[in-house]
Amino acid sequence: MALSASDLQRRHELEGAPDPFPSLAESSPAPKKKQEQNPTVDPGFEIAFPSLAPAAPDQAPAAVSAWGAGPRIKPVAKAPVFVDSFNLSSMDLSNAGKDGKSATLGEVMKQVMAKYKVKIDASANQRTRQTTFHVKAESQKELDKAKRSLLALLSPVISHVLYAPISTIGSIVGVKGATLKQIRDQTSVRVDIPKRETLTPTGNGTVSGKASPSLDEEEEEPTVPVTLTGPQPLVFEALESLKRIIASRTPSTTVRVRDIPAHVLPFILTCRNGFIAAAQSNDITLTLTQGAREITASGDREAVGRAVEAIKAAIESYKAKLTSLKLTLPKRQHRLLAGKAADEVMTKSKCAVVVPSEDEVDEELTVWGQPQDLATGISTIIEQANSKYIHEFPLPGPVSLSKDLVTYIEKIDFVKTLQAQQADVEVYLPSLKAVKPTLSIDLVGDKSSTDVLVKRLSELVGKLYGGVRSVQIDWLLHRVIQGKNVKKHSMKFITFTSTSPMRIPRCHPVLLAYDPDSASASPIPDEKKKHLDAVEKELLKFAKDAADVKSELVTVEKRWHDAVNGYGGTALNAIIGEDTTLSVKVGGEAGESSEDVILVRGISSDVDRVVKEILKIVEDAKNDEIENSYETEFEIDREYVARIVGSGGAGINRHRDQLGVKVDISDETDEKEGGKKGKKVQLKSKIKITGREENAEEAKKRILAQCERLADETSDILKIPAQYHSSLIGEKGKYTIRLEDKYSVKITFPRHAGDGGEQKTREQLKSDEVLIRGGRKGVAGAKSELLDAVEYEKETNNTLKFTVPTRSVARILGRGGANINEIKDDTNCSHIDLERGSDEVNSTSTITLRGTKKDIAAAKAAILAIADQVQEEVTESVTIESRYHRSIIGAGGQGLKDLIARCGGPSDPKAQVGLVRFPRQGEYGEEVLLRGEAKVVAKLKEELEKIAAEHRDRVILGVDIPAQQHRALIGRGGQTLNDLQNKFNVQIQFPGSRSYGQVGVPENSDELAEVDAANLVKVTGSRSNVEAAIADLKSHIKPPMPEGITREVSVPSKYQFAISSQGSFFRTLRGHGVQVDQSVPTQRSSLPARPPSEQVTSARIDDEEDPASPSAFEWQVVQNYQDVEEGDSVWTLKGRDEAALDKAEKMINDAIQKATKASHVGFLTLADRSSFPRIVGTKGASVARLRDESGADITVSRENNTIVIVGAESEINNAKDAILKLAASNNGPRGGRRHHDD
After folding, report:
1. Is the pLDDT higher at 1134 or at 503?
2. Which residue has the higher pLDDT, 671 or 662?
3. Angle of helix 1064-1071 relative to helix 1138-1157, nearest 10 degrees?
4. For domain 1045-1085+1112-1224, is the CATH number 3.30.1370.10?
């Protein structure tokens, strides 16, 4: 394929201007530029930044270097004044007075100013009825305190209840109450959270002792009421803080809006899109539970809240504006107004219709809607009710017989049989709970189809009439009756039992139906009655024989019922087992006058077993209570109580979990005066242990043993410098914990003092003191190990600080820290810290080393060796127009590298970093910074100024070069173009290159106004070099070809596509110097489409059939050129001479003859594509060989399993056989089984 000059330039990356941002190395930090005069925004302006505190007066920030150094000169400024303003629309001064008297506003302001050393000004606006307060202070802290105090004194005290999810209470309280204390301290608001044991779950999922927030709203997670009491604005501030904590812990929630009125629900459903829009979030889902009349909203907490509010508002709105009308319609037409039909009525008339349940006799409908829509609604309902034909099929009476017939029809799924026969008819059976004098089956549909099903129903009811009967048998015997011993006399025995036997009556009917489809069934009523009597008699006899059923009432006190039931009823389920014929009712469920009973009913043997097990459980519970009632009391010294209880009660909980005992500690022992000198005796605490005797005594033994160990406890304070503490403690305290576990001691390290100098530890320790507390032997062992560890740390944790010139820091660090990491690895120095100094001349940076003396000495020597290599640096700048930067840098930064090398600079890319720095992309400026050795910097500056002067002398001239010759001038791989540019030191841009449009307009553009843009080549450089390059380019321009001769050849249009061979034929002609113009362009492929498959194949993984067998492929042959347009296309041939035209014409005629012979098209479809690689061959060698041998054109599809073969009928058959043979041979090496035709 021919490539244009622009394509060649893009392929070989020969752009006129090189990349201006090469990846040499990381450049040094950019110098500070003069900032643009952008409009500034006051950060203290509350509208712009409402979350920020009021700012101090504007103050110019000191420049900070990349290494964190401070400003060179610290400005001396006056102490800043912090200012804040706020408005109050109403004030309550009743809280600010004393002795029940209210204070004045002036007195409140004086009180706050005196307490917090602030200045407060107040001004009232009578029009807006607001008072504006201006507060000034010397510190932000004093300002905030004064503002909060003023708000607290002037605002009314309110209480607000926030319902927080129970899972967020821990986050609200925080570790040891830290979060809650912080909110209270910041806002001075009282926050009350009820204790967990006082909370009771309410019906809507809220855990509270108070009323739930909404009776028709339910959250998925229980909530706890949090009460906030304090000044109004501060309460709101605390409320927002709590809401943020809740949102961070529970970003998603689920809320249910329940008990939506039935007549309002259809209208609410039409507002779904409005509710989602009100939520202001797409991350929310709304689902409907139709039966419960509730809507569930799930998603982001705030979005759900907004959606629920919109739903509730819509419900209230519809309640207020909806009215109703009554409409009476026959009961059978009610079926046409329920479900989807009701939705259609709503869509057409904006009215909802409420239909009474099927069990009710009432025929009155209720139509709900707005007054203006009710007329349309009633007409729509009447139209819908009359839209289909309804046939009522009455069942014979009495009602008991009708219900038996309905029961039988339901059991045999006769409705499905009817609907399978007439799918367009809907069949509705009456409800068995309906209280009606007669029962009917409703059929809805086309009258002709309905009549067919009425006939079928009549036949069935006729056969069943007199052939069904209900027999009352205890439900406990139903399963027994259905056993294999039941004799069936041409009957179907249908037993109906409930899944909850405890809730059904003791006797339940068994329906006997004389099988109407039996071959021996008799239509005579007396014969049916005879068989029913016989079966009923036999069933009753069998039930009587098997009915060893009894009930037994067991007296069990109510307090033992929980033991019988077990957790979640597990104990009772285990007693009953999987046998569902056993009923156990506990307490009030038994229906007796006393609740101290358990009723057991079932088979006698099962009842006896269950009663025995219940009594055993009760006896065990009584014995367990007796065993766990043992108590023992003793006293211990009160000073040991805290250690016995443990952190957070861990010690007491350990005894409870391991021994199953309850431990109570009381400090009620009074202080006693002992002796004449009035000395106090040692205080005691009483411990009471409750549980099994042996467990309680063991717990007592353990506690007393612990007290003995505590009595032997001693403490020792070690002097250890603070610098070794972190190493001795270890990550997450692992070393200290190991020592504590090993020696049973407590090791305490000092912590940093908090605000106000308060120690964070219970013991008052100095910064270099470590406390060990425990038994004498344990303290001695831990002390010995700690001191040994300190000696090791002193040896391996030495610290050394020294300084190096700041100019050498970049070389010491290396690119990406490579040099410093290499030093650290080579010297085994454990830690190297670098604190960089300012960028001033002769500034120094501090390096801190940590490790053994030997390692830090080696690391210091290596660092100083690198620093000594960096000589005194100077900084210079050169102003060069930004349009020349890319050319100077060169492609990939090569121009800059060559420049540094010519000026005697380092060749190592790491050392070149920061030597020459051009402005980065996005930075504005023309200043190029040079930083390095004075000698190298001077040469670079001189060379850059020279290059800049040459660029300023550059011109852009255009030259007219035919586009057909651009490729030859660029050369293969751009070599010719590169040589030409290097020879004359110019840049040459051919049309189509990326930077062609960036070069600019040539100076001689007026002279080239008539030149085709595709022929205009731009040359950039000094004027003399450009003129010489243009002259050289013109010398390589070849003269245009002489005007050629033409000839016309007529080609049938239907053969054009086949002759063109997708354009390769025309490229061949151009290779012979002949161009072709067509009067009728070549259309898309003229090949006929593949006919539909005539065989259905199924592939299985266990199919061993050979892909080459006849059933594994499909061969279809059609006539070629069937649906193509007739006519001829005139091809105009243009060539240099007659010989070329003669050769082209002969090639066209040969191609026409070949296309004429291609009379058939064959479609060979294989089972899969596994053999295609072998058919195609390496680089198409196999398919090319097949084309040559058969004479047919073969195309292997890349998208499906079909190979298209075009040619004479014999050629395509030969090609097909050769392909199948080649495909079959592909199975050999894979070990597959081959099948051959006989």
Report:
1. 1134
2. 662
3. 160
4. yes
Residue 1040 near residue 1122, CB atoms below 8 Å? no
Residue 66 has what DSSP assignment? T
pLDDT single digits (tens) 1043-1066: 668 888 888 888 878 888 777 788
Distance of CA 543 to the CA centre of its chain: 62
* pLDDT of 989 strictly over 80: yes
309 φ/ψ sector (left φ>0, alpha ψ -120 to 50, else beta): alpha
- Cα 1053 to Cα 1062, 1080, 1084: the distances in Å are 15, 8, 12
Report whether 1006 contacts 944 (CB < 8 A): no
What is the SS3 assignment for 616?
A: helix
Look at residues 88, 82, 59 and name the one whose alpha carbon lies nearest to residue 154.
88
Which of the four pLDDT bands, split at 50, 70 and 90, describes residue 1018? very high
pLDDT above 80 (res 901): yes
The confidence score (pLDDT) of residue 480 equals 57
User: Of 757-766, 855-864, 1042-1051, which range is least confident?
Assistant: 757-766
Query: Edge-to-edge, what's the strand order for the sheet holding 223-231?
Result: 157-165, 223-231, 190-192
DSSP 1097: -
Domain boundaries, the chain: 80-155, 164-194+221-250, 551-587+609-627, 636-646+683-715, 716-752+764-796, 798-874, 1045-1085+1112-1224
Residues 184, 189, 190: CA angle, nearest 5 degrees: 85
User: Identity (one letter) of the amino acid at 1197?
Assistant: S
| Sheet containing 440-445, strands listed edge to edge, beginning at the edge strand earlier in sequence | 389-394, 440-445, 426-428
pLDDT at site 959 = 92
* Of the options 1.10.3720.10, 1.10.10.10, 3.30.1370.10, 3.40.30.10, the CATH number for the domain spanning 716-752+764-796: 3.30.1370.10
- E strands, 483-623, are 491-495, 507-514, 549-555, 583-586, 597-603
Tokens of 1021: 């450089």
CA dist 453 and 390 (Å) reads 12
Pairing of strands 1202-1207, 426-428: unpaired
Please state the three-class secondary structure of 1004-1057 as a single string.
CCCCCCCCCHHHEEEEEEEHHHHHHHHHHHHHCCCCCCCCCEEEEEEEEHHHHH
Contact 981, 22 (CB under 8 A): no
CATH 2.120.10.10 fits 80-155, yes or no: no
Number of neighbouring beta carbons within 10 Å of residue 137: 21
pLDDT, one tens digit per residue, over 259-310 is 888 888 888 888 888 888 888 877 788 888 766 788 888 888 778 888 888 8
Nearest CA-CA partner of 555 in 594, 591, 584, 582: 594
pLDDT higher than threshold 50 for residue 1115: yes
Which one, of 1053, 1046, 1055, 1048, lies nearest residue 1129 by Cα?
A: 1053
pLDDT band at 546 (very low <50, low <70, confident <90, very high): low
Question: To 10 degrees, the CA torsion angle through 1105, 1108, 1113, 1116?
Answer: -160
d(C-alpha 1195, C-alpha 419), whole Å? 54
DSSP, residue by residue, 268-320:
HHTTHHHHHHHHT-SSEEEEEETTTTEEEEEEEHHHHHHHHHHHHHHHHHHHH
Query: How would you classify residue 1130: left for phi > 0, otherwise alpha for psi between -120 and 50, otherwise beta?
Result: beta
Counting DSSP H helices and E strands in the chain, the numbers are 41, 46
CATH class of 164-194+221-250: alpha beta
69-112: per-residue pLDDT in tens?
A: 333 334 444 556 788 887 877 777 766 666 556 778 888 888 88
Beta bridge partners of 511: 470, 494
Strand (E) or helix (H) holding 834: strand 831-835
Put simply, whether the predicted model's pTM sits higher than 0.85 gets the answer: no
